[in-house]
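3.2 Worked example (two chains)
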Amino acid sequence: MKQRILSALVFVPVLLIFMYLGGAPFAAMVAVLATIGVHEFCAMAKTKHQVLFVPILLGVWVMLACSYLHVSNWVTLGILVTFCMVFGYAVFKFPAFGVEDIAVNFLGLIYVGWTLSHLILLGGMPDGRVLVFFAFVAMWANDTGAYFIGITFGKRRPWGEISPKKSVEGAIGGIVVTCIALYLLNMYFGLMHGATVILIGVAVAIIGLIGDLMESLIKRYYGVKDSGKLLPGHGGILDRFDSVMLAAPMMYYCILLAQFLDQFAGFGVWFVF
C-alpha cells in the first residue's frame, strides 16, 4: 500500500499537468502511454502467440494522430495499416503464423490503440480538458468506491476465476460513488444537466468495471500477475489504465448521443454548452 500511495503522489500530479495543458502535450502523453501499453501487451501475449510489435504500434500511432488532427472518421486508418502488415506477414508465414495469432495482434491494436485514441478525441471536444478530467475522476471514484464498499459489505463474488476480490456489492458501490463524484464536479463546472451526468456516470462505471475485469482476464490467460513494472505498487500502464481505456470511448459516445438528442430530438435537457 505504501508503494501504491508513493507512486500515486508522483504519477497523478504529472497526469493532471498534462490534462491541464491539453492539445499536443496531452496527445504526446497518451502516445507515450499507448506505446508502453502495446509493449506490455506484446510481452504478455508472446508467451503463447506470435505478436508483431511494430505493425501494432504503427497502427496505434496512426489512430492517435488522426484523433489529434480531429479527423475521427479516419481513426480506422490505423486498422488498415496493421491489417496490411499483419495479413501480409501471415500469408508468407502460414501455418506457423495462424488465425489465432492474427486475432491476438488485432486484439492488441483495438484494446490499446482504439480505446486510448478516445482520450484524445474527448480532449478535442468543447471543454475537452474538463471532460478528460471527468473521465479520470469517474474511474478513480469507481475504483475507490468499489474497493471500500467491497471490503466492507462484499459477499457475492461471481468473478472469482478472473478477479476473486471483486464483488457485486463493491461494483454497485463503485457506480454510486462515481455518480456522486461526477454530479458534484458538474455542479461546479456546469457542463451538463443532472440527468445526463448521472446516466454517463452509470455507463462509465459499468464499462470501467468490465475494462478492469477484461485486463485481469488477459493476465490470467497469460499467467502473469501484472502487465508491467513501471509503477511500483500498481504494476504497468495497462494495470493502471484498464478502466479508463474503456471508459473514455463510453463517455465520448454518450456525450455525442446526448448532443444528438439535444440538437435533433428537441429534448433540451441534456447539455448546457
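3.2.1 Second chain
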Amino acid sequence: MKRLFTLIAILVFAFTTNLSAQEVGISKKEQKATKRMLEAQKDSIAGVMAKNAIESGEWIFNAISINVSGGAMMNVPSNLNFLMVQGDQFTFQTSTGFGGGPNNMGGITTTGLIKIEAVDVDRHGNISYSLRLNGTLLNATATLNLQRNSNMGDLYLNMDRGARNISMTGAVYSLGSSQVFEGTLR
C-alpha cells in the first residue's frame, strides 16, 4: 500500500512539473496499474453518488443510446433523451434533436407520477430498481439496472398499452450535475 501511495505521489509530481514518467523511473506496467486504480476509484465515487441520488429521489438518467422493440440501437444526444425524477414526479423525454414531433424536438416529452416498487442487489453488487411510471403519455413499468460501483446502467420501459417497449443505455446523475433541454409538453 505504501508503494502505491508513493507511485501516485510520483505521478502527481511528474505531471505538475511536466516530467515524463520514464524520466522519474516508473515502468509502463506501473503506470497502467495506477491508471486502472484511479479509474476504478472514479467509477466507485460515481456509483455512490448515483445510488445516493436515487435514494434521495432527485436524479436523472441520461441516455446515450436507445433501442425500441428489438430495432437497431441508435446513439442519441444525452441532454435530450432522459428520465428525470424529482420526488414522486417524473419527466420522460425522447428526441432526435431535429425538430418536429409532439415536443418540437423530434420526440415526446411527458410527465407523471413515479413510485419505486423494489430494489434488488445481485451477488455481484449490481443494483436493480423497479419503478412504476404513470403519466399523461406514458404508463409503464421501468427497470433501472446500475452496474456495480458505477453510475452507468440500462433503463428498460415495459409499456402497459400497445406502445413499443424501450431500452436505453446511459448514466445516472444527481439533478444538479446534469443539464438537459426539455421540449414542450403536450
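3.3 Remarks
The two ends are 57 Å apart (CA to CA).
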